[in-house]
Design a protein that fits this description.
- The chain has 554 residues and is mostly beta strands.
- It contains 1 helix and 40 strands.
- Strands 3-2-1-20 form a 4-stranded antiparallel sheet, with no helix packed on it. The protein has a 4-stranded antiparallel sheet with strand order 4-5-6-7, with no helix packed on it. A 4-stranded antiparallel sheet has the order 8-9-10-11, with no helix packed on it.
- The protein starts with 15 loop residues before the first helix and ends with a strand.
């Protein structure tokens, strides 16, 4: 929470009108349709010091010392563990026979904690294609144990959260949210092999009102898991666990505002020894702030954490939707030399690397399960993906767009535009080795000077596409997740974009999991447009210059 935004003495009554508007957007937060309770800021939280409580066991204690550490996936895709200074962060492996070289960049990593009560924690990895895999972390062994379970079809959710034990049986559970905002509970079976979770049960709706869902473990000293959620405009809500699997959360109440200053909120478990799960916020520049929990669902005033946390591309326990598998752009000069610019994860780019021969091509969000952007090019009508020959007949297209999964099956797809302006969808096979037969999904797209896409701009976790018309109007085509009609009708979201002679979708540039855009004007200045996650974009910010050296930007 941005405490400078909180004025002393501002009570819930002063913000009741504002809370009513928020409540109207989230009236179906619970299955019973309970409206949000009267808001209260963290500064206004009253109550005695929280009692020393056993609470729930740490979810990220992979070393077995009883302390929860910070786990994150770095920009190179390696899982790292941070125990704090002066000990340097060190890599953690999974000993996964399906990934012996540890080259996968996972879409998300979830820490449910100790699922079977043996004192060892487990981790869950989620791939781009929607495969969720359970990894036991064996004591001090940094390679972990061999996976004991794997399930497919999890791409139907835009967020999977490990909140702790929601049923009171001593085993930690999962919740998962669909793009429509329905919330499902997966009750733990107490096993890590066979079926570790019971079949999904819908327990709430209206959760699409939140752009962050954070599992807190136990923040109220009752042994039951709790959840914190945030709206896109920065209002923070607490959902206390009930222990009842049919209705796992009490009515939410507001505990703060100004939290949109953070690009990620992260559940840390207990960091101050009082047995209560705490919260961390990361700003775009990588600075972090810690919010220690009170036993009534409220938070203490923030204290500074540490800086430099833009190194974390994905926090284990983060609240935002995981972003698309593209965090870079490719510039190609007149000589045909290609240069890569990778994201720093804070809204800026690293210096370029490369200088390699680059045929005329494009850069797509990942078309296989490695979680990394793929290079496309067409040579004599033959399409190549990352060097692999896909097929012929592609010379009829003047634009290829790889925005991610448009059909909802977990595999990255391609859009192709021909000279007539007709748009075709080619569904990927999830391996980057073949594409399904084309489906015509639109016409009239020849009027666009740029069509790009790489990830989610609307906050529902689905891939979206944007186009710049000849008059400079910027249009959004929201993804549907359906192959037969993958894009909704266009919506105007900007104007004046004809000043850009090059335009590209970079994926997530600032670490919030939302798709961002970049453009190069006639002077060669590079501007970024970060997404709000609501289908709109923020004001532009210049992040580079000299980009007129390139004839194309992908």
């Amino acid at each position: 929470m941005h405490l400078s935004a909180l004025k002393s003495g501002r009570t819930g009554r002063a913000y009741s009108k504002r809370a009513s508007r928020i409540a109207a957007c989230t009236a179906l937060v619970l299955s019973a349709g309970v409206l949000l309770a009267a808001p209260a800021s963290a500064d206004d939280a009253k109550g005695a010091e929280a009692p020393k409580a056993v609470g729930s066991t740490p979810r990220m204690d992979i070393t077995g010392d009883g302390e929860s550490d910070i786990l994150y996936q770095n920009r190179q895709g390696r899982l790292m563990q941070s125990v704090g200074a002066p000990v340097a962060d060190y890599p953690v492996g999974f000993n996964d026979p399906d990934d012996p070289d540890e080259q996968l960049v996972y879409k998300d990593i979830i820490a449910p904690g100790d699922l079977q009560g043996d004192g060892q924690v487990e981790l869950l990895t989620l791939t781009e294609s929607g495969t969720l895999t359970l990894h036991p972390m064996v004591g001090m062994d940094p390679t972990g144990g061999t996976p004991t379970w794997s399930g497919k079809g999890w791409q139907k959710y835009n967020k999977i959260v490990a909140p702790g034990d929601l049923t009171g049986d001593g085993h930690n559970d999962l919740i998962a949210r669909t793009p429509a905002g329905d919330l499902y509970l997966y009750v733990s079976t107490g096993r890590i092999d066979g079926e570790p979770f019971e079949p999904a049960v819908k327990v709430a709706s209206g959760w699409d009102a939140y752009d962050q869902i954070v599992g807190m473990n136990d923040s109220t000293a009752d042994g039951i898991g709790d959840v914190v959620t945030r709206t896109p405009d920065g209002y923070l809500y607490f959902h206390a666990g009930t222990g009842n699997p049919a209705k796992p959360f009490k009515a939410p109440f507001m505990i703060g505002y100004g939290f949109d200053t953070y690009n990620q909120l992260v559940g840390l478990d207990d960091i101050n020894g009082d047995g209560l799960g705490d919260l961390m916020g990361r700003k775009e520049n990588g600075d972090t702030y810690i919010y220690r929990a009170l036993s009534n669902g409220h938070l203490r005033m923030r204290i500074p954490g540490t800086f430099g946390w833009h190194k974390a591309a994905v926090f284990v326990g983060a609240g935002g939707n995981p972003g698309a598998a593209k965090r870079s752009i490719l510039g190609v000069n007149a000589k045909g030399d290609g240069y890569w610019y990778d994201s720093k994860n804070n809204g800026e780019l690293f210096s370029r690397v490369g200088r390699f021969p680059q045929p005329e091509g494009w850069l797509a969000a990942s078309l296989n399960d490695d979680g990394q952007a793929d290079n496309l090019w067409v040579d004599n009508g033959v399409l190549y993906i990352a060097g692999a020959r896909i097929g012929s007949g592609w010379g009829v297209y003047n634009n290829l767009i790889g925005p991610g999964d448009l059909s909802g099956d977990g595999a990255g797809d391609l859009l192709a535009r021909d000279a007539k302006g007709d748009l075709y969808l080619y569904q990927g096979n999830g391996k980057g080795t073949a594409l399904a037969a084309k489906i015509k999904v639109g016409y009239g797209y020849g009027s666009y000077r740029h069509i790009v896409g790489a990830g989610d701009l609307t906050g529902d976790g689905r891939a979206d596409v944007v186009g710049i018309a000849e008059d400079g109007t910027l249009y959004l085509y929201e993804g549907t997740g359906k192959a037969s009609a993958p894009l909704k009708a266009r919506v105007k979201i900007g104007y004046g974009f004809d000043i850009y002679n090059k335009f590209a979708a970079i994926g997530d540039l600032n670490g919030d999991g939302k798709a961002d855009l970049v453009g190069v004007n006639g002077y060669g200045d590079l501007y970024r447009y970060t997404s709000t996650g609501t289908g709109k974009i923020n004001k532009r910010v210049r992040i580079g210059y000299g980009f007129n050296t390139y004839k194309a930007l992908y």
